[in-house]
Amino acid sequence: MENTTKLDLDNSWHQKLQDEFASARITDEEMCKSMKQVLDKFKYFIDPHTAVAVAAAEKLNYNIYDSDYISSNKRPYAILSTASPCKFEESVTIGVGENKWKQYVELEFPSRAASILSKVEVEPTLYQWTKGQTLEEVQVSWEMLARNLVENFK
């Protein structure tokens, strides 16, 4: 890769990867359906990333919904999720419905996330390159902007 800047794997590596890993393509509708199904079955709100993982696992014949793993012929699995539904209001609302989103906000929305929503949004700092400036001049002016932000941070 260092010589060609391309990641070329020979067929034996492709075969090893295909033997060990599986993937599935998930539509937006399937993602939303997973959010609703997990909420209905487990009373647990999941974010869109986790919903994609759940939908893909189901497509790959893993089992989350049927407690009788043996007769269902599906494999049990676990998904480790790190994102919170609070970051994805629009997607989660579409997935579970407006009333369920409101229920989530009222009962389960993380307090630290809620406190952020009440803060006044600060305009972003724009780092611009003025035509005719040298790289060194731009670096100095951008550094001054950054230092000013840090010094005046409240």
Whole-number mean pLDDT: 88
Low-confidence stretches: none
Q: Reading side by side through the largest sheet, how are the strands ordered?
A: 1-2
The amount of beta strand, in percent, is: under 5%
| Class by SSE composition | mainly alpha
Notable traits:
154 residues; mainly alpha; 2 domains; two-stranded parallel sheet; 2 strands; 54% helix; 3% strand
Secondary structure: elements and pairs:
Layout: H1 11-20, H2 28-42, H3 48-59, E1 62-63, H4 69-72, E2 75-76, H5 89-96, H6 98-107, H7 111-117, H8 135-151
Parallel strand pairs: 1-2
Helix pairs in contact: 2-3, 2-5, 5-6
Please tell me about this protein's structure:
The chain has helices at 11-20, 28-42, 48-59, 69-72, 89-96, 98-107, 111-117, 135-151; strands spanning 62-63, 75-76. Helix 5 (89-96) packs across helix 6. 14% of the residues are buried. A two-stranded parallel ribbon has the order 1-2. The protein is flat and about 70 Å long. The longest helix has 17 residues, at 135-151. By secondary structure, the chain is an all-alpha fold. The two termini are 46 Å apart. It has eight helices and two strands; from the N terminus they run αααβαβαααα. Helix content is 54%, strand content 3%. Helix 4 (69-72) links the parallel strand 1 (62-63) and strand 2 (75-76). It folds into two domains: 11-117, no CATH class; 122-154.
